[in-house]
Amino acid sequence: MEYALNTTWANFLLPCPYWRESQHILFQLANGCFFFSSLAPNSKKGILFLHTFFIAGFFLYSTWSWNIICAPDVFSWTFGFMILNLAQVIHGVYILRPVKLDAELEPIYKNLFEPLGVERKSFKKFVCSEYAQVSALNLGDPYALQNLTRSDRLGLLLSGKANVFSDRTLLHSVEPFQFLDSPEFQSCQPLLDDKFKVSIVATMPSRYIWWSRSSMEYILVKEPQVAIALSLLVARDVTSKLAAMNDKISYEKGYRVDMRLHCISFSPVPKSIGKMGSYYSDTFSSPKKLAFKVSSTYSFMQNGNIMLDESSI
To answer: Which residues form the POPDC1-3 domain (predicted)?
Structure first.
C-alpha cells in the first residue's frame, strides 16, 4: 500500500515520459480567446470585452469537447460557462445602453448638469414626469404674482424670456437655462406659507420645467449626485441675479456703485428701504442667506435705476 502511494506521488511529480501530439486547432483558438480576455481594461466596456471573449473561448471549448474528444463532462462545464458569460454580456449591454432625453431637455443637461459630472441616467430620473412637469407661458402670462403665489417650487426656463418685477419696477430678466425663482426657493422655509415678493411675467412664448419642493426633496435624497449639482447651480443663479442688480444701483450724482463692496454687502436690509431693497430683505432675511445693504434714501428713476445717497454708504 505504502509502495503504491509513493509510486503515485512519484508519477505525479515526475514529467511525462511520453508527450502526445498537440491538441486540435479548436483547443488552441479557445485558449487564444482566454488570453485576449485577460487584456481587457478595468472599465464597464472592458468588462463587456472580457465576457465577450469568454463566450467565444467557451464556445470553442464546447465544440472541441463534443466533436473531438467526446467528453460529456467537459462539454457540460464549458457550455454552462458560455451561457453564464452570455447573460453577463446581455446585462452589460443593458447597463451601457444610451439614455435618451427629450429634445428640449437635452440642452439643459449638456450646458448645466453634464459639466458637473451628473450621469444621464440620474438626470433622466430627476426630470421624469413623476417628479417634474414642463409647462408653457404665453406672452404676458405670469409665472408668479407678487404676494399671491406660494413659493413652494423651483422653475427652470427652457426657452423664451421672462421679466421680474417688484410692483411695476423691473428688477432683472430671466434667460433660458436660468432658474425663474432661485432666490425664493433658496430662502423660503418648507413648512411656511411664503409668498413671492415679486412678479415674474413672460415677455414672449416660453417653456419651463418645474419641481414642487416636496417631490424635489424626495428625488434628491435618492440622487445625491444631482443634489450636489443642483445646489451649486442654484447658488450660482442667485449670485448672477444679485450681480445683475449691480447695474441698477447708482449714487445721486449718477455714477455706479459696486454692491459687492464690504459697506454694501453682507448685512440685513431694512424693510423700509423701498421696492428693490424690500424684495432682497425678505428674500435673504436669514443670517445664512446673502443680503446687501443700501440706504433708505433712494428713489426709482423712470428707467428703473436706483438713486443712492452718498452720505449713507
So the answer is: 23-248
134: cell is: 414642463
Separation between Cα atoms, residue 156 and residue 17, nearest integer Å: 80
What letters, b where the CB count within 10 A reaches 16 and e where it falls short, cover 252-280? eeeeebebeeeebeeeebeeebbbbbbbb
> Cα–Cα distances in Å, from 155 out to 21, 151, 235, 277?
75, 10, 14, 23
* DSSP secondary structure letter of residue 99: -
Calculate the CA 147 to chain-centre distance.
Answer: 32
Residue 190 is predicted with a pLDDT of 64
Sign of the Cα torsion 162, 168, 172, 178 reads negative
DSSP bridge partners of 66: none
CA distance linking residue 71 with residue 5, whole number of Å: 28
Would the pLDDT of 110 be above 60?
yes
Determine if the pTM surpasses 0.70. no
Quick one: how far is CA 256 from the chain centroid?
A: 38
Neighbours of 194 (CB within 10 A): 16
Amino acid 15: pLDDT = 72
Beta bridge partners of 162: 174, 202
pLDDT digits (tens, 9 = 90+) for 113-169: 999 989 888 999 999 888 999 999 999 899 988 888 888 889 999 999 999 888 788
Alpha-carbon gap, residue 282 to 96, rounded angstroms = 47
Who contacts 152 (Cβ-Cβ below 8 Å, separation ≥6)?
188, 190, 194, 212, 213
φ/ψ of residue 271, rounded to 5: -75, -5
Higher per-residue pLDDT: 186 or 56: 56
Average pLDDT of the residues in 54-77: 90
Q: Torsion angle of alpha carbons 162, 155, 196, 284, nearest 10°?
A: -100
